[in-house]
């Protein structure tokens, strides 16, 4: 395909029944325009231990127009003439691809109902799972390739009358290149252990001239484990919990306000992680701003590296 627009080739599907749901297949050729203003931080030379890194798509290219591409992915059929025609849809136009499964439903001899579709989706490429989630939701665009998208769906109607479950499937080919990152985040260690205090060094960098120097870094452990995160960095606090005038703070999390990110000038945050008897992973994430600051959706939130814990 060329990059002129999406093309869908859809064939009529066999019917899926509630008692014996069957896999159906669809072939959808898609030219998905996925460019983003997303990224993660890079920093100075890492220690000898392997560095964990997370990156976000670039904002150097103009933002594409959001669009949703759909293909018929299966028909669910049940007792009393219940019927639901389900599509799989991929939304594009930002740093993520979103998956949804709208449906048309009704009963024999009745007016069509409004349909509510819930369930889960899975995306695979070359036999490997690259994303899962509830319907509807999305994940960061992994790059061009052919993806097998499946949904385990539950379709109900309003007013009541249709209640069906089944599996639907489609094949989507995405050709848009994955943009280079604008921001990156890295951490210098990959493993924690119980009953130890470990120093983690996070570095957040902006590598693009677009946007500004602001970012909000969150570092979070598992609350139930008793893990404690501390830092001497004045830009970071343990978040407040409870209603005013409560002064209780979350010892398992840190919230860092970074305001001086510039290309060639990353920010580094040093964190001490005290793991108790119970293991705890530590995750990281950050939000940042891009141009057109008066618009609501001009930045992004990215998931950073996860530091695991081993007994």
Description:
By secondary structure, the protein is mainly beta. Helix content is 0%, strand content 49%. The chain has no helices and 24 strands. It has strands spanning 7-9, 15-17, 27-29, 52-55, 67-77, 83-92, 96-100, 103-106, 114-125, 128-134, 137-140, 145-158, 163-174, 183-187, 191-192, 196-206, 215-221, 228-230, 236-237, 253-258, 267-275, 282-289, 299-303, 308-309. The strands form 5 sheets. It has a 6-stranded mixed beta sheet, with no helix packed on it. Strands 2, 5, 6, 7, 8 and 11 form a 6-stranded mixed beta sheet that branches. Strands 4-14-16-21-18 form a 5-stranded antiparallel beta sheet, with no helix packed on it. Mean pLDDT is 79; it is low at 1-50.
Radius of gyration: 23 Å
Biggest sheet overview: 6 strands, mixed
Mean pLDDT: 79
Instruction: Give the oligomeric state of the chains in this entry, treating copies of one chain as homo and distinct chains as hetero.
Output: single chain
Question: Based on CA inertia axes, which overall geometry fits?
Answer: elongated
Q: Could you spell the SSE succession in H and E letters?
A: EEEEEEEEEEEEEEEEEEEEEEEE
Number of helices: 0
What order do the strands of the largest sheet run in, or round the barrel if closed? 1-3-13-12-9-10
Approximate helicity band: under 10%
Count of distinct strands: 24
Strand proportion, as a percent range, falls in: over 45%
Low-confidence stretches: 1-50
**In terms of structural class, how would the helical and strand content be classed?**
mainly beta
- Terminus-to-terminus distance: 50 Å
